């Protein structure tokens, strides 16, 4: 089992920045990739960014050039640096970790961008 704990959400004005963190515990060595998803009210959950254990990254088109995903050296914590935030970035952000057979989710952290 893997447990994920997110932190760093909050309220920020448009154009501002936030940094989200997600710490994995338990069988973190079994993780192949970690990522961030978000869900806005009335919308489906969507991928924001993902990073593999090999360091490859993938971003949603809407955040390219503004958001950066990274991990620590131990690869058990994933970060999402969000710059130039827009009101449409508002939503609950979920950390996700992919093991060989299982996908794990964090509890979510609220990000609100005011115009």
Provide tags for this entry.
single chain; 115 residues; mainly beta
Summarize the structure.
The chain is an all-beta fold and 115 residues long.
| Beta content | over 45%
Distance between the termini: 40 Å
Order of helical and strand elements = EEEEEEEEEEE
Quaternary assembly: single chain
The largest sheet is: 7 strands, mixed
The unreliable regions are none
Helix percent reads under 10%
Principal-axes geometry comes out as: globular
Task: Draw up the topology in text.
Elements lengths: L1 E6 L2 E4 L4 E9 L6 E7 L6 E7 L4 E3 L7 E5 L5 E6 L8 E8 L4 E3 L3 E6 L1
Parallel strand pairs: 2-11
Antiparallel strand pairs: 1-3, 3-8, 4-5, 4-9, 5-6, 7-8, 9-10, 9-11
How would you portray this structure in words?
The protein is 0% helix and 56% strand. The protein has no helices and eleven strands. It has strands at 2-7, 10-13, 18-26, 33-39, 46-52, 57-59, 67-71, 77-82, 91-98, 103-105, 109-114. The strands form two sheets. Strands 2, 4, 5, 6, 9, 10 and 11 form a seven-stranded mixed beta sheet that branches. It is globular, with a radius of gyration of 13 Å. The termini are far apart. The model has no long low-confidence stretch (mean pLDDT 95).
